[in-house]
From TrEMBL:
Protein task: Catalyzes the condensation of para-aminobenzoate (pABA) with 6-hydroxymethyl-7,8-dihydropterin diphosphate (DHPt-PP) to form 7,8-dihydropteroate (H2Pte), the immediate precursor of folate derivatives.
Encoding gene (name): folP
Gene Ontology CC entries for this record: cytosol
InterPro entries for the chain: DHP_synth-like, DHP_synth_dom, Dihydropteroate_synth-like_sf, Pterin-binding_dom
Protein's name in the database: Dihydropteroate synthase
Amino acid sequence: MKLNIKNQLKGRDLPMIMGILNVTPDSFSDGGDFSDFQSAARRADELVSEGADIIDIGAESTRPGAEPVSPELQIERFYEVIKAVKAKHKIWISIDTQSSEAASAAIEAGADIINDISSGSDPQMFKFAAKKSVGIVLMHMLGTPQTMQKAPEYKNVASDVMAYLQQKKKAAVQAGVLEDNIILDPGIGFGKTLKHNLELTGNLKIFTQLGSPVLYGASRKSFIGKITGRKEAKNREGGTIASTIYAMQQGVSIIRVHRPRINLDAMRLYRSILTGA
C-alpha cells in the first residue's frame, strides 16, 4: 500500500494520536505488561477503542541503558501481533525498530510506518522504506540508548536538533523515500537533560518549518517525573497531558502516548475552549 502521510494529515483539527504498545519485557513504563500475544492483542483493541489513529509497536526497549535486541527476537515478539491487529482493525501500525531486517518483516506482516529512533543507522533502512513506499519517522538521538544520557551537550539544542533532522530528511529523500511520507521527531528524552527537553518542547513550532509532519513523544518520560515528583512512570499522566496540549498549540501533527483517550479528551476540550463550540 502506498501511503501519503502528509496528505492524510491535511484538514485535521486535532493531531493524530499514536498509541504505544510495547511487546517487551523491559520498557521503562510498561515493560512486561503486554509481552505475550493475548495481552498485546487486548491492549491493541483498547488503544483502538480509546481513539488511537496509529499503534506504535515496539519489540526492543530504547530506555536509557537498554541493550540491543536481535532482529530475530524482535520479529518473534511482534510478527503475529501485527498480523492480528491488521486483520481486525483498519488502523495504521508503526514498528519501532532500528533494524531494516525487522522493519521488512513488520511491513510484510502489515505495518505501514517505520519508527526509526536512529534515523537510518542501518544503511539499508532508507532504501527499504523507499522501495516499499512506507512512512518513516526520523528521530534525533545523541549517541545510542546505551550512551545517550551520559552528559549530553549541545551548542544550542533546538538549532542542533533541527539541523540534524534536516540532514536526515535530505538523506532519506536522496535514497528515494517519498518526502510526504517522512515524519520528524525531535527525540524527547533521547540524549537530553531536563533543560534540553524543556527547550525542545518550548520550541516545537520551529520543527514544522522543515516541511514534514512533526511527532512529539513525551509520554511518562523522566523529565515529567523530575518536574512533578512522580517517580512511578505510570503516575505521570497529568504531566503528559500538559505536554500534549502544549504540543498541539505548537502545530505538532502526531502525539505519541500510552493512554490515547485522556489525551484526546484534553485536546478536544482545549479546542472547544478556543473555538467556543
